[in-house]
Design brief:
The chain has 252 residues and is of the alpha+beta class. It has helices spanning 4-15, 31-42, 44-47, 53-61, 73-93, 106-122, 233-238; strands at residues 51-52, 127-130, 147-151, 156-166, 193-201, 210-217, 222-223. Helix 1 packs across helix 2 (31-42).
């Protein structure tokens, strides 16, 4: 049986990431892990699916994904604050003068939800919300997760990732959740709950109506790796011997 932890460590080694709260470093020669990684990529359907998200996070960052439990007072307070804020934000962004009315692409609407949730969560009692920081201590918008929520009396942390989803597409196989293990830009730097909220919209471009929300605990999520080896134009055209056709002469 394939060991997921071995796969994750293999990926991190091949990428030169140490898998802990320290700057990235290559911990062993890369050739052997790379050969094994390529073999796995060729058989990705068998080897690269069904990876428990908590195991991925633990291996990549050294931190735990904690299941949320409504029976725990701090967890219940976090859930209550998130749910109340979601109701307020949806009502606000459904107004005729909502700033989302100016957006033509649903991806551009996501930032409005993040900003509004940040504001409304900070207005909830005993709750503080911020943009997560990287290992370098910098607040970073891009990448998972989007928001860090703290229950102030206990210090319990929940990461929250808002996603906009078209109504009727909840059973779609389209990939919409991404986590890329990084070194200094990693934003998972503590044990925490990991939550995702899917916000359904009606798909009416420029007149979006947000219908309902779905709060998901990612502690039971399984993910898969999409194996892809790629290169940029800089890689293609600046790392090979020059063989450039001369430009045509121009005459006055």
């Amino acid at each position: 049986m394939f060991r997921f932890g071995h796969l994750i460590r293999l990926l991190l080694v091949a990428a030169g990431v140490s898998g802990c709260d320290s700057p990235p470093q290559i911990t062993e020669p890369a050739e052997s892990p790379l050969k094994e990684l390529v073999a796995l990529a060729i058989n990705e359907d068998q080897a690269l699916g069904g990876i428990p998200f908590p195991l991925l996070v633990r291996t990549a960052t050294g931190h735990e994904v904690i299941a949320i439990d409504p029976a725990v007072p701090a967890d219940k307070a976090l859930i209550t604050a998130i749910e109340a804020s979601l109701e307020e934000v949806i009502a606000e962004l459904n107004l005729p003068n909502s700033p989302v009315r100016k957006e033509k692409r649903i991806n551009e609407v996501s930032r409005h939800f993040e900003d509004a949730l940040l504001l409304h969560l900070n207005a909830q009692p005993d709750i503080a919300c911020e943009i997560p920081t990287t290992l370098a201590g910098e607040h970073q918008r891009s990448g998972y997760p989007d928001l860090l929520i703290r229950h102030v009396p206990t210090g319990q942390i929940a990461f929250l990732d808002p996603k906009l989803v078209a109504s009727g597409s909840l059973n779609s196989s389209l990939r919409t959740f991404y986590f890329t293990p990084k070194g200094e830009t990693n934003k998972i730097n503590r044990d925490a709950h990991h939550l995702l909220v899917g916000i359904e919209h009606d798909g009416a471009v420029g007149a979006w109506t947000f219908l309902r929300w779905h709060l998901v605990d990612l502690s039971s999520l399984t993910v898969r790796l999409k194996a892809e080896f790629q290169a940029s134009n800089r890689d293609l055209y600046q790392t090979t011997p020059p063989d450039v056709a001369p430009e045509p002469e121009t005459h006055p």
